């Protein structure tokens, strides 16, 4: 072990005299990033209405795509968590709005569950940013009220849907300007809410789309007032689209096919249902449901299509039911009609459906202007934001190469971290390298360093 001990001090001196981070910190111009989500903003909503001057401005001054490809299932919690982690739902574990997990306490998860353990295990963009010494504020986002990897955003609030949108915008811009935050996230629970009860083409929904355009206008105005507009890379997107439904007439009532002898519990229901079978009854349950019209039975390890990336997690129950577009699954139709509002719009369906696809527009110094590019995936947003903030992304399922189509200046082709490189002559240590045994230690140390540290060696 003698050689190892002697290499360690050489490694230390090497690090001091020859190492530089692969991505040098930006000099002078600090870029800021704002990510906006308008819940349920379908990719084609702007064609449903006439009066959206602020979105029109974003399109002219920024970059867009036909839609952004979101993940399955197209529900609010999973899709939002994908945007900030770059992970498929099966990999970040928020696989529905309502979940069951025997290893958690409590075992049931609802949209109000903030217990850290349900969320942790993966870096979010604000975790990554704060770990790198940047400042992040989140005015509502799925997961932001929990400690994830031990980290909460520097500014955050417990969710309250009644907080006026204007107040959210003003507070966010204050963080970005007065507090000089690098990253800001903001969430609006519209036009989703209105479209559920009125349908995606309902009059009130159309009005809501125009109202959200006004909220975007307020954000652009506030950024202009604070001199930030041309320093901020602003991304406006959404979690999913919205399909026409009628939960009264297009209802699949599970009581018509199964009862409690086969089903232990229904964890999630609506466009998608998660069923926990009674012990040993999975096959009987599948047999009882496989011919039911207007839905598909997805048996986790068996017939779940690969493209959904929706099986590799224990919280995905053994039997998942996926309704055809426009249909609603309920464990008790009578109860639903009595206790829940009638839905004329819904989501959670297959992510290849046109109606499920969200909008994406971006504007700022890094983005192309007046450009329409090929669609990217919502898993690409996390590595894109990491690139814009000049920080190291955590392992994810996205692709910066794919997202690069949005950028004015393409990112430098990243060096594969683990590829062995041929050691070059070492200038700053030239007098040492005349001694052969030091030189061989140095080469060994270089090789080790190359494998151990995520830096490239700049000589
Ligand atoms: C900083 O921004 C100015 C104006 O936007 C630009 O001309 C300059 O090239 C930028 N410098 C760097 C280092 O990015
Ligand atoms: C939510 O916000 C509204 C509007 O500001 C306020 O009246 C209400 O008390 C808040 N609710 C909670 C639980 O904080
Ligand atoms: C459930 O359905 C089975 C088969 O249709 C029937 O024999 C049984 O009595 C039902 N059990 C309950 C609790 O309704
Ligand atoms: C379904 O809901 C109705 C209305 O709440 C209730 O009376 C009935 O017992 C429920 N049926 C089952 C099987 O839970
Ligand atoms: C997604 O990324 C995670 C984390 O790196 C990885 O474990 C998983 O295998 C990836 N999924 C796919 C389908 O590549
Ligand atoms: Zn949503």
Concise synopsis of the structure shown:
With 459 residues, the chain is an alpha/beta fold. It has helices at residues 2-18, 53-61, 76-85, 89-92, 116-119, 125-131, 165-177, 192-198, 203-225, 282-289, 300-303, 333-339, 381-389, 400-403, 436-452, and strands spanning 32-38, 63-64, 99-100, 108-109, 136-139, 183-188, 232-237, 243-244, 251-253, 263-268, 272-277, 295-299, 319-323, 328-330, 345-346, 360-363, 371-372.
Folded structure, characterized:
With 459 residues, the chain is an alpha/beta fold. It folds into two domains: 32-244 and 353-406, Alkaline Phosphatase, subunit A, CATH 3.40.720; 251-343, Gyrase A, domain 2 (2-Layer Sandwich). The chain has helices spanning 2-18, 53-61, 76-85, 89-92, 116-119, 125-131, 165-177, 192-198, 203-225, 282-289, 300-303, 333-339, 381-389, 400-403, 436-452; strands spanning 32-38, 63-64, 99-100, 108-109, 136-139, 183-188, 232-237, 243-244, 251-253, 263-268, 272-277, 295-299, 319-323, 328-330, 345-346, 360-363, 371-372. The strands form five sheets. The chain has a seven-stranded mixed β-sheet, sandwiched between helices. Strands 10-11-13-12 form a four-stranded antiparallel β-sheet. The chain has a two-stranded antiparallel ribbon with strand order 3-4. β10 (263-268) and β11 (272-277) form a beta hairpin. It is globular. The model is unreliable at 1-28 and 419-459 (pLDDT under 50). One 2-acetamido-2-deoxy-beta-D-glucopyranose (NAG) binds at residues 87-88, 91, 309, 395-397.
């Amino acid at each position: 072990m003698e050689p190892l001990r002697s290499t360690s001090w050489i490694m230390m001196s090497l690090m001091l005299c020859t190492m530089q981070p692969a991505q040098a910190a930006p000099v002078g111009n600090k870029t800021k990033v704002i990510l906006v989500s308008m819940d349920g903003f379908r990719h084609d909503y702007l064609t449903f209405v006439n009066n959206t001057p602020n979105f029109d401005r974003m399109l002219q001054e920024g970059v867009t795509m036909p839609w952004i490809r979101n993940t399955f299932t197209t529900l609010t919690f999973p899709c939002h968590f994908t945007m900030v982690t770059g992970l498929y739902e099966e990999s970040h574990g928020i696989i529905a709005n309502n979940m069951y997990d025997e290893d958690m306490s409590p075992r049931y998860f609802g949209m109000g569950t903030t217990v850290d353990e349900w969320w942790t295990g993966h870096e979010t963009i604000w975790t990554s940013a704060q770990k790198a010494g940047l400042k992040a504020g989140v005015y509502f986002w799925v997961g932001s009220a929990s400690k994830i990897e031990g980290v909460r955003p520097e500014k955050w609030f417990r969710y309250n849907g009644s907080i006026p949108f204007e107040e959210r915008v003003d507070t966010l811009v204050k963080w970005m300007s007065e507090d000089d935050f690098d990253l800001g996230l903001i969430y609006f629970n519209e036009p989703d809410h209105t479209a559920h009860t009125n349908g995606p083409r309902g009059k009130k929904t159309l009005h809501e789309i125009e109202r959200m355009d006004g909220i975007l206008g307020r954000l652009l105005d506030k950024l202009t007032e604070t001199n930030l507009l041309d320093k901020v890379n602003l991304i406006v997107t959404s979690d999913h689209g919205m399909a026409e439904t009628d939960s009264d007439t297009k209802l699949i009532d599970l009581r018509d096919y199964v009862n409690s002898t086969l089903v232990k519990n229904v964890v999630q229901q609506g466009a998608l249902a998660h069923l926990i079978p009674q012990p040993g009854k999975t096959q009987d349950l599948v047999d009882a449901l496989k011919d039911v019209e207007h839905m598909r039975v997805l048996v986790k390890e068996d017939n779940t299509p690969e493209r959904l990336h929706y099986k590799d997690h224990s919280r995905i129950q053994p039997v998942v039911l996926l309704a055809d577009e426009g249909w609603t699954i309920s464990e008790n139709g009578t109860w639903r009609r009595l206790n829940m509002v009638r839905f004329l719009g819904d989501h959670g369906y297959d992510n290849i459906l046109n109606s499920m696809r969200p909008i994406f527009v971006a504007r700022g110094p890094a983005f192309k202007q007046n450009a329409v590019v090929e669609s990217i995936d919502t898993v690409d947003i996390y590595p894109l934001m990491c690139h814009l903030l000049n920080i190291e992304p955590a392992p994810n399922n996205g692709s910066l190469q794919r997202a690069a189509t949005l950028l004015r200046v393409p990112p430098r082709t990243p060096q594969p971290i683990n590829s062995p490189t041929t050691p070059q002559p070492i200038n700053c240590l030239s007098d040492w390298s005349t001694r052969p045994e030091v030189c061989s230690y140095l080469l060994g140390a270089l090789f080790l360093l190359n494998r151990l540290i995520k830096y490239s060696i700049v000589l």
